[in-house]
Amino acid sequence: MRTTVAGAGRGAQAGEHTRRDTATAVPYGPHRRTASRTRTPTTTAGAPVTRSEPRFRAQPGPAPRRQPDRPRAAVVTGGSRGIGRATATRLAADGLAVVVGYAGSQDRAETAVEEVAAAGGRAVAVRADVADEQQVTMLFDTAEAEFGGVDVVVHAAGRMRLAPVAELDLAELDALHRTNIRGTFVVAQQAARRLRRGGALITFSTSVTGLALPGYGAYSASKGAVEALTMILARELRGRDVTVNAVAPGPTATDLFLRGKDEETVARLAAQPPLERLGTPDDIAEVVAFLASPAGHWTNGQVVRANGGIV
User: Fold this and answer.
1) Which residues contact 180 (CB under 8 A, 6 or more apart)?
2) Is the pLDDT of residue 49 over 80?
3) Among the ranges given (25-34, 99-108, 112-121), the one the predictor scored with the smallest mean pLDDT
4) Which of 28, 102, 216, 219 is catalytic?
């Protein structure tokens, strides 16, 4: 169901013998530069010639990602609540149209669309199970039909189930893997096929992978798979001018995190970061917005921990 709301070398000096310089390419920064190793020239009398030459010569290279003249559009899964919803609104504030992907409440999805409109953006809401290839294909089809293409994909949909390894029901493990691993793969596959040049894919891991907390074994393992997929896909998309990164939040005040935890547990986790509080969805949305922006283009194939310093 869908709801719509409105650079050359210098010549020889007179009277000197010249020798060919050797050079090595040094690729870095927005332009490649060539470092020359210049042999000292001499005059006809054999005296050394003193001259000033640049150490590096500018060479043309790939330009960094710029804000395109065309309108940009984003697909945000898990966009009806929590981090996904905050991200949809934040991207809209940067001028992106947004397809809000959701699997649960239509009312929440419609509210998210209204928030995007209030932020000055355009949005549609599309129900889609992220592990279902046909439904995810429809999600991307909608973005192309409504907004002309896809420039940013934020895969924020996820599932959490906490239990000791010895006690976790394998049916719960399968459900966790279906959403967190298969779902990420299906969305990433469509993103790899459809993202326009200058685009960005942002997946979600967790800082818990670095904390090794008891009870988080299955969940952390599923997010470890997300990190591996993210880093490999960033390399597979060489030449496309598309970045792929994962954001790994720490304890963040979302329904997904708070569910099943008593006040004492929440307070203990909130006190652990040096900043002494839980993160908020808006905290994480700011990190995502950076990675999706031209300013974040040089960050690629990375897992960015956003956790207040907890790990």
Assistant:
1) 158, 159, 219, 222, 223, 225, 226
2) no
3) 25-34
4) 219
Cα 186 from Cα 196, distance rounded (Å) = 18
> Taking residues 57-83, what's their average pLDDT?
75
- Is 102 one of the catalytic residues? no
Burial, 278: exposed, middle or buried (Cβ in 10 Å; 0-12, 13-18, 19+)? buried
In the chain, the amino acid numbered 71 is: P
CATH number of the domain located at residue range(s) 73-306 in this protein: 3.40.50.720
Q: Could you tell me how many residues make up the chain?
A: 311
- High-pLDDT (> 90) share of the chain, %: 70
Indicate the domain borders of the chain: 22-59, 73-306
Q: What is the pTM of this model?
A: 0.79
